């Protein structure tokens, strides 16, 4: 039996991956995360959740759910893929807590960041999709449809404009208006972190009415203490 037809746009237009828990779903769910990356990413998140429970047995859940969304840039040498994305607290349908992350991932040789504007547009759209995935909530299919409109944050070969590109621009404008200010890149030299051979990732918060700007620079592996730093609460 032949498999499902592959839409040409699916091949030509990269789409963000995601992994974690959605309020509309009953358990872990994700799309387009390479298997090796999923295993290592999930291990970090699970170990971090264990550490959070150990550090604050009576109040860890409050800390978790009141934590902000964090943007991140991670070079390929850390987890095998270059990553640009956003992570924040979420839960499944019955209230079991776990993060949800949306990210663009590419092989190390392809991990050249696009322009600042393209990256900020991607991060703004990814953030807004994550917020709506928790708030509305969005189904897995609806989240995928949102992510298909996002600007890609890595350099790629340019193709002729089409209606989907126009739709992407309009969708980004709509999401930016619905969720507030555009995402901003960190103040540090983040492009140095994304160069081949770099072992430094950067995690940051864009200013919101509830949260001041914040930046965390992580050298080498993603460990439990980084997780508890990100999910320390308001």
Describe the fold and architecture:
- It comes from Delftia lacustris.
- InterPro entries: TagF, TagF_sf.
- Pfam families: TagF_N.
- This is Type VI secretion system protein ImpM.
- There is one protein chain.
- The chain has 234 residues and is α+β, with helices and mostly antiparallel strands.
- The protein has a single domain (8-230), classed as pa0076 domain (pa0076 fold).
- Helices cover 39% and strands 20% of the residues.
- It has helices at residues 8-12, 35-55, 60-65, 76-79, 116-135, 140-147, 163-179, 190-193, 224-230; strands at 17-21, 28-31, 70-74, 82-91, 97-106, 200-205, 214-219.
- It has a seven-stranded antiparallel beta sheet, sandwiched between helices.
- Strand 4 (82-91) and strand 5 form a beta hairpin.
- Helix 2 crosses helix 9 (224-230).
- The radius of gyration is 17 Å and the shape is globular.
- The model is unreliable at 1-11 and 159-178 (pLDDT under 50).
SSE layout:
Layout: H1 8-12, E1 17-21, E2 28-31, H2 35-55, H3 60-65, E3 70-74, H4 76-79, E4 82-91, E5 97-106, H5 116-135, H6 140-147, H7 163-179, H8 190-193, E6 200-205, E7 214-219, H9 224-230
Antiparallel strand pairs: 1-2, 1-5, 3-4, 3-6, 4-5, 6-7
Helix pairs in contact: 2-9, 5-6, 5-7
Pfam family, one: TagF_N
Organism: Delftia lacustris
Protein name: Type VI secretion system protein ImpM
């Amino acid at each position: 039996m032949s498999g499902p037809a592959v839409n040409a746009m699916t091949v030509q237009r990269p789409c963000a991956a995601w992994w974690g828990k959605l309020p509309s779903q009953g358990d872990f769910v994700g799309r387009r995360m390479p298997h090796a990356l999923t295993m290592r990413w999930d291990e970090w998140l699970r170990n971090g959740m264990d550490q959070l429970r150990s550090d604050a047995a009576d109040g860890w859940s409050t800390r978790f759910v009141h934590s902000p969304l964090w943007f991140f840039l991670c070079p390929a040498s850390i987890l095998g893929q270059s990553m640009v994305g956003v992570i924040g607290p979420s839960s499944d349908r019955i209230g079991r807590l776990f993060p949800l992350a949306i990210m663009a991932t590419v092989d190390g040789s392809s991990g050249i960041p696009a322009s600042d504007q393209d990256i900020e547009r991607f991060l703004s759209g990814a953030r807004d999709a994550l917020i709506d995935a928790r708030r509305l909530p969005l189904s897995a299919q609806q989240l995928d449809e949102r992510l298909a409109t996002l600007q890609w944050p890595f350099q790629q070969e340019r193709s002729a404009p089409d209606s989907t590109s126009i739709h992407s621009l309009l969708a980004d404008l709509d999401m930016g208006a619905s969720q507030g200010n555009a995402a901003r890149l960190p103040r540090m030299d983040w492009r140095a972190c994304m160069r081949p051979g770099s072992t430094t990732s950067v995690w940051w918060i864009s200013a919101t009415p509830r949260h001041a700007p914040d930046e965390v620079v992580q050298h080498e592996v993603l460990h439990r203490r980084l997780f508890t730093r990100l999910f320390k609460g308001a």
